[in-house]
Amino acid sequence: MRVGIIGAGALGTLLAGRLGRVAEVWVFSTHAETIEALRRGGAQVLVDSEEMSTAVQVAGDPTRVPLLDAALVCVKAYETERAAEAARRMLGQEGLATTLQNGLGHFEILAQKVGSSRAVLGVTYLGASWLGPGRVRWAGTGPTYLASRPEIATRLEEMGELLSRAGLEVHLVEDAQGLLWGKLVVNATINPLAALLRVPNGALLESEAARRLLQAAALEAAQVARAAGVRLPYEDPVVHVESVCRATAANYASMLQDVLQRRRTEIQAINGALVRAGERWGVDTPFQRCLLRLVEALESSYTSQVEA
Q1: Among 42, 124, 261, 306, which is most buried by a count of CB atoms within 10 Å?
Q2: Measuring CA to CA, how many Å separate 264 from each of 9, 114, 200, 276, 299?
Q3: Does one domain contain both 56 and 145?
């Protein structure tokens, strides 16, 4: 099977490193430094103290990629339009494109570009920490869920088997919306707080003040999900988010990694999406709106921050 990885950030590099051992993998990236690093050293994945390097094919132009059987979209939310267009140009006639991105709205954009019959909604709990172009630390071995439909079941099963052979935990499900929102509630709580406080996930439970912020964010996010008619995959959002913090205590949330590198964050696709959903379903979201504005302000102040 020929698989394309669109986006070579932390998640994309991790998937390239794992899948490149069991399939022909093409990585599509528009970042010259990343392309050069992958060509020179392959996709390098650090697991505990062992580093594994996997050779992959790399391209910065979708027309140079042979037709793909599958594409995994791993770009940041604000790059979805361009990534979906790249997927359209690289997919074979029977190929499937799967979004594994954070936030809401990505599947709809992907479906518009590649056709609803070839778009797949995925939700992943894999954790990866960015160490540099082409190099990541595998920070969490959580499951990945792929939403199946009768017309794509056979092809998606093949993709699931490939991911399993690559050492990943994969589940095919009929409906991934609850899982997508379940992850959104977690992301809308942990990501902005970790980024604003500049702490790893576990530190959000170490002070009463941080814990109260976490609880407020989780409850408000879950309220929006319920108003939207979504059944979350857990009963108590606070208990669940706190359990995620404990299980990933040493992890740097993706938004924290972006802030530390002074990169644009996915705040609009995560907390912004919740605020917009709240407006649609008649739920006031003052806490989520505050987190949104704080992270936006933090991003805009990158060049004028005072150094210690």
Answers
A1: 124
A2: 13, 26, 19, 20, 7
A3: yes
Q: What is the pLDDT of residues 179-202, one digit of tens each?
A: 999 999 999 999 999 999 999 999
Shared domain for 300 and 225, answered yes or no, is yes
How far is it, in rounded angstroms, from Cα 191 to Cα 54?
30
- What are the tens digits of pLDDT across the range 10-62? 999 999 999 999 999 999 999 999 999 999 999 999 998 889 999 999 999 99
Per-residue confidence (pLDDT) for residue 142, from 0 to 100: 87
Structure tokens at 52: 């594994």
The tokens of 134 are what? 């082409």
Domain end position, chosen among 160, 175, 190:
175
For residue 252, give the amino acid letter. Answer: Y
Look at residues 128, 150, 175 and tell me which one is the last residue of a structural domain.
Answer: 175
Task: Name the token pair of 306.
Answer: 């005072």
The DSSP code for 102 is S
Give the Cα separation of 112 and 127 in Å (integer). Answer: 28
Its pTM stands at 0.93
Residue 268 confidence class, pLDDT cut points 50, 70, 90 = very high
Query: CATH number, domain at 148?
Result: 3.40.50.720
Pull the structure tokens for residue 96: 């499937």
What are the C-alpha distances in Å from 240 to residues 91, 106, 190? Answer: 37, 24, 11
Are 136 and 45 within 8 A, CB to CB? yes
Please state, for a pLDDT cut of 90, what percent of the chain lies above it: 93
Catalytic residues: 183
Return the structure tokens found at 183. 């992850």
Domain that holds residue 212: 178-304
* Structure tokens, 238: 């606070």
Determine the Cα–Cα distance for residues 39 and 215; give it in Å rounded to an integer. 44
Burial pattern 267-298, b for ≥16 Cβ within 10 A else e, equals bbbbbbbbbebbeeeebebebbbbbbebbeeb
